[in-house]
Structures are given as structure tokens and as C-alpha cells.
Amino acid sequence: MANIRDVADSAGVSVATVSRTLQQPERVSPKTRNKVMAAVQAVGYKPNLMAVKFRSGKTHNLVVLVPTVANVFFARVISGMQEAAAELGYSILLANTLGNSEIESHYAKMVSTSQADGLIQLRAHNPFDATMINDNGLLPMVNACEVIDDGQYPVVSLDNRAAAKAMTEHLISLGHTRIAMIKGPNSSPLTQERLVGYKDALAQANIEFDESLLLPGDFTLQAGYNAGEAISRLENRPTAVFCENDETAIGAMQAFKQANLHVPNDISVAGFDDIAFSAFVDPPLTTIAQPAEEFGRTAVTLLVDLLNGKIRKAPKVIMPFELIVRESTGKALG
Amino acid sequence: MANIRDVADSAGVSVATVSRTLQQPERVSPKTRNKVMAAVQAVGYKPNLMAVKFRSGKTHNLVVLVPTVANVFFARVISGMQEAAAELGYSILLANTLGNSEIESHYAKMVSTSQADGLIQLRAHNPFDATMINDNGLLPMVNACEVIDDGQYPVVSLDNRAAAKAMTEHLISLGHTRIAMIKGPNSSPLTQERLVGYKDALAQANIEFDESLLLPGDFTLQAGYNAGEAISRLENRPTAVFCENDETAIGAMQAFKQANLHVPNDISVAGFDDIAFSAFVDPPLTTIAQPAEEFGRTAVTLLVDLLNGKIRKAPKVIMPFELIVRESTGKALG
DNA sequence: TCCTAAAATGAAAACGGTTACATATTTATT
DNA sequence: AATAAATATGTAACCGTTTTCATTTTAGGA
Q: Cα separations (Å) of A312 from A6, A121, A153, A285, A303?
């Protein structure tokens, strides 16, 4: 591979002049500029950006830690990130961690080993262990969606409590009083917040919280299906189910159909996230829409600001949500 | 950030010794080793991997170009890639190109600018333009799923023609003779191959190919819905629809339901890919399963072999498929 | 104890750029 | 035409590591 010295030799100038021609063309005379450009073509020069990044100490790489890109909501967030990063001149190193802590720390380590400038994660644990921490103890990181509440890192999040409350109120307004909830994984703070919002709404309507209507889940279709089956068999069956994400809701609906329960006549089903599939299932799913792409864009912007020292204290950006009422929720009958 | 020189000073040895201690501990005396390790801890040394990669000329980064991670099938392929890469000591730089050619070439350029050792793409165009090509004209690349047929690059693919033929034969065996097809984007060779397989099966059964039963699509839910609507309105309606991917099939099924067509009694629907959702829609979707994760793993392995010079001629790996019959396809009635 | 071979360590070059500083050239001013 | 100022270019240090080669130290055998 031709390097900058080959170009310099071919053009009969110094390497400094070649570098200047490429970086700040206005600082070099038109005559020289032409010579150099011709030489660049002639020798087929491509700058070794690894050398540039090493020399400058800025990689312009951002690591993104995502539990799984198979989660359709995350996929939208990532799209937003990639767009914003491209605009700001950064590359996204997307780490699909699959819950594998080796992959996680492999990528997290990229920040402490100068391979990336900062990190964004869509999960709620500190990815940096003692071996990665540097002098001042803080590596540049932004948390999106899920929240680490230690207030040390910028956060872009949703008011999950308010959103869950809004959805529960919607169900209550349709006359439902026995409302089950299928939860997300307990490890996720977001799951807890949504649970609190659900309880808020119940309390406000003077409906007693019933522990037996709380079902475990992990945000997958299969978990939704399993919970749906369990609900179908309940003796005093609830008339509505609030699922903490859309995959769960779609899985549950399938279980209800196989148990010959009609949605929403026998049981209303609500989701969370508004993934693309939700408008195309039968019946179309009532859910909470989040500005997923905007989440991603904001996270990247925050991180870049952080890297540029434009941020004093870790900000907390709360994104808006929207209740999308479709046909999977209806009036409580009987 | 402490560098190797700080460690050397702290341990009272040379930088060469520090480097050796870290890279080939056996080449250094136990006494020195302990001193150095202690110094590493004391100064909080983390090697600057940008410098290492620059120096070695090997980045151990692989760029993966994917049109959109929102495609659930791709998400599975990516998971497989990440696993294999982790095992082989490589990092995946995942580029969600969103069809944006700027993002595409931004990431493709990483290979020609020494930021990545090679590239895998899940699309069928040459991402390298004239400005990226190096001396011998070939940059290390592997094509997965979609095929560039110039035989220059290794390929890991499916016999899409055979798979589409198998699915069409399944429909024919159920008594269907009017079988519509909802295509993928025309830009995709894979789409053409599946079309040919479909025609193969028709010809073999002496069913004349009907151009009017061929509907455009782009692998999205919405395109499937649109095509499904169009099919519902056809005067001489087909009794079966073969969709070139599952998203399309799910979108089409939704359109049929809204047109009061029962699946499969009024119309059978078949997909392709076997994404997770397909087992959880109503009715569960008949489809072609591909070993998605294995695709990813194989692509990474091929690329790494290519980088290590273990490959003479561009190999073509064909992965197996499986026909998954669920409830969305049934006997042709009437 | 002395000599040789093996093992351990150090000095310095190299990777490919950028950039501060020095020097050479051009342009402007009188 | 002489001089100052502005512009253009070159020289060399530098970023943090690895690695070759030279040198020193240690171990082993006589």
C-alpha cells in the first residue's frame, strides 16, 4: 500500500506538503496542490486512518452495546444512532452482546484501550469493570432507554412510569378492573418503572393490586405465549392484559386464540413500544409509541457533546410517548 | 493515560521488557515479570490498542454491511457473526446502511483505509468504488445470503431456487394451481432466484405461469399488506400466495383478514425465512427455515480464512434449508 | 575458577501520519 | 531597489507500541 511518503516522492514535495494538501488545501499553492493530487492518483494513495487516529488520539468511533438487535425496538433506536453518527462524523461499533458478558466487556474495553471514544448502552448495568476504569474513574458513556440511576452518566429515557400509567388508565376507562400485567425481565429497571405506573393507575381508580395477576416475562414472543397460556387457565380470568412490550403482547394474543379467547371481546391486550409488527397482527395492537429513532439520535448527540466537553453535569433527557389505541383493547364485557 | 513508558519507568526496566512481559511472559524472568505486573497495576496501564493495531497493520476488525438490522432474519445472521468473531478474536463493526449509499461507502472505506481487515455484506452490490480499490484490485470481502455472481469473492448462500421450488411444490401438492407470488425488491438477485424456483415448480406441474399473479414487494410488512390487498381484489383470485419473506407474508395475511378472507381456507399463505414472529401469528406461518446464525458464523470463518491466506479460489458455500409446514397453508378448496 | 552457551534485557528503529518550528519564496510597501 | 510582511514549503519530532539486533547477565560444564 502506497503511503504518504510515496506520494511526496512522486510529487517531488515533502510529506508535510502532502498532508497539508489533503487536510487544508487552501494552505498550499494551486500549482503544488495539482502536483500532489496527481501524485495521489498516480500511486493510488489511501491514507492509513489507523495511523491518523492513533496519532490524533481521537478514534471517532462510538461503541453501542445492545442486548440483541433482534429486538425490533432496539433496531429502530440503532437506525437513529447510525444516522446521527454519520452526520457528526462518527462510526458506530455495534455490539450485539446477546447477554454474553465476554462480548460485553470485549467491546466495553474498546473505550479504555483507545479504540473508541465513548460508549452508549441500551442496558442498565455498568459495563466498565475495575480493569477498565481510568484515572478519574469515569469513561464517557450515555445510557439510553434503560437507566442507571447513579446520576453519573447522561441518560436519554422515557417516563416509563407515566406511560404505563396512561395505558392502564386507558384499560380502566374501558371498564376493566381485573388487569393482568406480563412483566419484562426483573433485571431491567424499566420493568420496575412500568410496574409502578401500573400500580399508580390502579390505586388512583381504587382498584386493589392483585399479585396473582402479575406474570413473569422476558420481552420475548415465547414468554408472552407462556404467560398468555397461564392467564387463559386462571379461574377468575382478567379481562385485560397489559404487556410490557409488543413481542410479549403478540405472543400472549396467540395463546389466547389457541385457548379460544377472542381479543378484545374476551380479553383486551395492550403492548408497549409500537414495533412495526404491531400494526399488522390480528387484531392490531394497542400500544405505547416511543420515538425510537429519536432516542438513538439523542443518545449519540449527548455522547458527542460529552466527548467535546460541552456537558457539565450528566443531563437526563426524557422523551415523549404516545398512546396508540388500536383494536386489541375494547370495552370490558360482562 | 499511563503508557508503556510509564510502566517501564515505574518498574525500572525498558519498554521492550514491559512489552515482552505482556505479550510473551515466558520470555522474561519471573522476578522481572512480577515487578512489571506490579507496575502495570500501580500506574493503571491500559495498552493503547490503536497504537498496537497501527503498528501491526492488523486491526482485527471486520465490517459488516447490512441493509437494515430491523430485518429480523438479518438480526439472526448478525448474532452468528458476532459469536464466531468473538471466538476468533475479531470485532464486528456493524453498519446498518439503511440503503444510504453514503453510510455504505463510509464503512466500506474502512477496509481501504486500514481501519478494518475485511468486509462481509448481506447485500448484492460491490461496495468498493474506484477510490477504494488497492493495487491488486481486490479487497477482502465475503458475500452472505445475497450473491454477487462474478466469482471473485467467497459466498455463503442458500439454494434459493431449490427452496422456492420446494415451497411451490408444497402448495401444488395441496391442490393449488393459481399461486400468486409476492416478490422482494428487484435489486436483489435472491428475489430472481426464488422467482425461478417458483417457475420451475409450475412448469414441472404443467401449470402455466401467469404474469398477473406476480406482485411487487420489498420485504416489508407494509409491502406485503399492499400486495395482499391487491390480491384480495383480483377477479380470479389465486388460492395460494407464496411470499418471498415472512414479513411480506404477515403483512399479506393481515390484508386478507381485513378483506374477510380466511387463511388458509380461502387462501393459503407461505413465507420464507422462519423469523420468530412466524410461529406466533394467526395462523402460524408455513415457511422456509434457513440456518441464519450458521450463515453468519460461516461468513466470518470464510473471511478470516481469506485474510489468513488459507483460501485459494473463492469458495461458494451452500447452506441447507428446511420446509416448515404450519397452518397458514391448506388444501385448495373449491 | 574460567569459558561458553543460553537466557534476559536494553537501545533504537519502525509503523504512517500530523504539526510546530525553521527556512525559503513570493508579494506588497516605500 | 530595498525591506518588511505574508505565504509556501521543508525538517524533524512525536504519538505508543513491537521487534530486531546488540549487549549484558546467568547457568552449566570442564
A: 45, 20, 11, 42, 12
Interacting residues of A254 by C-beta distance below 8 A, sequence separation 6+: A221, A224, A225, A228, B280, B281, B282, B284
CB pair distance less than 8 Å for B114 and A83 = no
| Rounded CA separation B189/B219 (Å) | 13
- Give the C-alpha distances (Å, rounded to integers) separating B221 from B103, B230, B294: 24, 14, 25
Q: Residue with C-alpha cell 449527548?
A: A302
Residue partners of B108: CB distance under 8 A and separation at least 6: B63, B65, B119, B127, B128, B129, B132
* Cβ pair A46:B134 closer than 8 A: yes
The C-alpha atoms of residue A135 and residue A268 are separated, in whole angstroms, by 54
Residues written for chain B? 334
Does at least one atom of strand C sit less than 7 Å from the CB of B15?
yes
Q: Does nucleic acid strand C have an atom less than 7 angstroms from the CB of A32?
A: no
Query: Which residues in chain B are closer than 8 Å to A132, comparing Cβ atoms?
Result: 46
B308-331 tens-digit pLDDT: 988 878 899 999 999 999 999 999
- Among B262, B322, B325, B327, CA closest to B292: B322
Q: For an interface test with A, which of B262, B280, B327 has the most A Cβ atoms less than 10 Å from its Cβ?
A: B280
Q: How far is CA B241 from CA A320, B53, B62, B165, B238, in A?
A: 40, 52, 39, 14, 7
Tens digit of each residue's pLDDT (9 = 90 or more) over A21-51 = 999 999 999 999 999 999 999 999 999 999 9
One-letter amino acid at A53 equals K
Q: Please give the single-letter amino acid code of residue B311.
A: I
Question: DSSP assignment, residue B43?
Answer: H
Cβ A250 vs Cβ A241: under 8 Å = no
| Max Cα-Cα span within chain B | 90
By CB neighbour count within 10 A (0-12 exposed, 13-18 middle, 19+ buried), where does B208 fall?
exposed
Helix extents (H) in chain A: 4-11, 15-23, 30-43, 49-56, 72-88, 101-112, 160-173, 189-204, 221-232, 246-258, 292-307
The rounded distance, in Å, linking the Cα atoms of B142 and A245 is 36
Taking CA atoms, B129 is separated from A301, B101, B102, B112, in Å, by 30, 11, 12, 10
At residue A147, does pLDDT exceed 80?
Answer: no
Q: How confident is the model at residue A102 (pLDDT cuts 50, 70, 90)?
A: confident
Instruction: Kindly report the bases of strand D lying within 7 A of a protein C-beta atom.
Output: 7-12, 14-20
Going A275 to A279 to A280 to A281, the CA torsion angle's sign is positive
CA A30 → C1' D1, Å? Answer: 29
